[in-house]
Amino acid sequence: MDIVCNKCSHTIKIPDNKVPKGKAFNIACPKCKNKISVSNTEKTPPENIKPGKPKPENTKQEKPPEIPDENGGIAEDPFEFLEEGAKTAILCESDPGRRAAIKKIIEKMNYHILESSSPRDTLKQMRFRDFNLVILNELFGTRDPEMNHVLKYLSQLNMFNRRNMFVLLISERLRTGDNMTAFNKSVNMIINVSDMDRFEKLIEIAINENERFYRTFKEAFRKIKGV
């Protein structure tokens, strides 16, 4: 299947056997990061033709598809095929116990979550997709919170992409709910590690408030764009 980005006209080639049949899915253009919605609905067979016997379901989970990168090689899962409206999150936390606790909460909130192993891995993943939720420890991959490369990257995103992303910063030094500092750090919310026992309640309230804040703006934007 050939998919043409409606923003930069870049052509993305995906092997037909890697395309989910009968489902709409989203991919991010590897060149400009524009989110592309692809409709792949199968045609309904004629009534006078009986469909063949369905194949038995394979209970074994398949490995995510490998997609050729720009240089002709195989990229390590540059994007996943997700159904329309699926929520994605990336978790950038080095502490194993804290990471496991956060992952459990985020999965409970129906996010498809990706655990990042390093700042380099995080930035590579962000090249290929826009995440709805980013959870970042300010010491992730660094001893100096002012030299956090992921945080610097997020602060340089254009407003359109950044507006569709909720960024939560975990800190050992900053106060939970400090809105002024959060604004200066270009994040939506700060949670201090001492308040991790309240993490689930705090993040649910913050995300709901953020969605309400932008709902009117997004509806007006969709009308202008005719979406």
UniProtKB/TrEMBL annotation:
Region Disordered: start-end pairs: 37-75
Q: From start to end residue, where is composition biased (Basic and acidic residues)?
A: 54-66
* UniProt name for this protein: Zinc finger/thioredoxin putative domain-containing protein
Q: What is the lineage of its organism?
A: Bacteria, Pseudomonadati, Thermodesulfobacteriota, Desulfobacteria, Desulfobacterales
